[in-house]
Write a structure and sequence with these properties.
Keywords: Transferase. The protein has 8 helices and 11 strands. By secondary structure, it is of the alpha+beta class. Strands 4-11-5-10-9-8-7-6 form an 8-stranded mixed β-sheet, sandwiched between helices.
Length: 239
């Protein structure tokens, strides 16, 4: 899914499931409502079997979670096997990364973005009003790594929130939300630059993120900031 081992590791550790179970060649995450990334099974060995797919599905059903697999774009064999068992593909997602030094070359203006942990009520409100439910916020609490919340401001108002955590040389930014009425004013860009500045202070050199391919507006922002695509994946699920 991600050839770079540092980014591949940070992708998993900075946004952890509530628990994990092995099912042959798959590792199954229990998300408890925290979204697809933590509620899916992923291949950890190339010698998985169709029986392993059934085992992973059984684990997910025992947790009362929807059967779901996270599959790299270039894993045709697993995609075909899942399709044959009635799984459907959705939510194509790209993984992007940029050098922190490039992002911090333009300093964040004073009073524009802040690193705050634990999150303030206003950050939680911005997340809750967007797509970051309480269950997704619990994922942040589970991350046992250097981490912080981010608060963005514009027009003297709380305008955006995000979460960033790091594992070694890589920081991952998650849960970027901007207040709808205050979008298109650069808030997301300043949150990302603030994440990179915080990550550099912790010793990281790269900042990575995942974005739905359907979110063309966000992707345009990331492209302008200098992020490059490293790979992609999609979710295969069934009822």
């Amino acid at each position: 899914m991600i050839a770079d081992p540092d980014i591949a590791r940070a992708f998993e550790t900075t946004w952890p499931a509530a628990e994990y179970a092995e099912a042959g060649g798959f590792l199954v995450g229990r998300g408890r409502g925290g979204g697809g990334r933590v509620s899916s099974a992923r291949a950890t060995r190339p010698d998985w079997t169709e029986a392993d797919i059934a085992r992973a599905e059984a684990v997910q059903r025992s947790w009362n979670e929807r059967p779901m697999f996270r599959v790299a774009d270039d894993d045709a064999a697993l995609s075909q096997a899942l399709a044959a068992q009635g799984f459907r593909h959705g939510t194509p997602t790209a993984i992007l990364a940029a050098d922190c030094a490039r992002l911090t070359a333009l300093p964040v203006p004073p009073l524009t973005a802040f690193a705050i942990w634990p999150p303030l009520a206003m950050q939680r409100d911005i997340w809750s009003d967007g797509n970051v439910s309480a269950a997704r916020q619990e994922v942040m609490e589970r991350a046992c790594l250097p981490k912080t919340g981010l608060l963005g401001r514009v027009q003297d108002r709380a305008a955006g929130a995000a979460f960033v955590a790091l594992d070694g040389p890589v920081a991952m930014i998650h849960a970027i939300e901007v207040v709808p009425a205050l979008r298109r004013q650069g808030v997301a860009g300043w949150l990302i630059r603030m994440a990179a500045a915080w990550a550099e202070e912790q010793g990281a050199t790269r900042l990575a993120l995942a974005v739905s391919r359907a979110n063309t507006g966000a992707r345009a922002v990331y492209d302008r900031l200098g992020f490059a695509e490293l790979g992609g994946y999609g979710y295969w699920s069934k009822d």
